[in-house]
Amino acid sequence: KVDDVTLARVKTKARAGLIHQLASNSGLANLLTTYSVAYGDWRKLFTSLDDLNKVTAADVQRVAKEYFVPEARTVALTVQPKRQGGKQ
User: Fold this and answer.
1) What is the pLDDT of residues 25-65, one digit of tens each?
2) Distances in Å between the alpha carbon of 28 and those of 1, 17, 22, 53?
3) Coil, strand or helix: which one is 9?
4) Is 66 helix (H, G, I), strand (E, B) or coil?
5) What is the rounded CA–CA span in Å between residue 42 and residue 27?
6) Closest CA to 72 of 63, 82, 80, 84
7) Which residues of 7-37 are buried (b: 16+ CB within 10 A; e: fewer)?
8) 87 Cα distance to chain centroid
9) Distance between terminal CA atoms of the chain?
């Protein structure tokens, strides 16, 4: 389970990022369009901080159990290409 300190830190960073973007016209325009596309309503931007404050450690755990399952994972392997002469 996510501990309270970690959850509070993540919430603080998310709030700060949102507020920082709201400080500029381009950031506000970006957020308005993003929320309009993602949620179907640009006004959702102005309730997002309240929604963020409602997230609990149990919510994080529940969503993690639903989405972080072996069947949904993607594994990527990186392989260094062989150099000329067959050596790596």
Assistant:
1) 999 999 999 999 999 999 999 999 999 999 999 999 999 99
2) 34, 12, 5, 21
3) helix
4) helix
5) 14
6) 63
7) beeeeeeeeeeeeebeeeeeeeeebeeebee
8) 41
9) 42
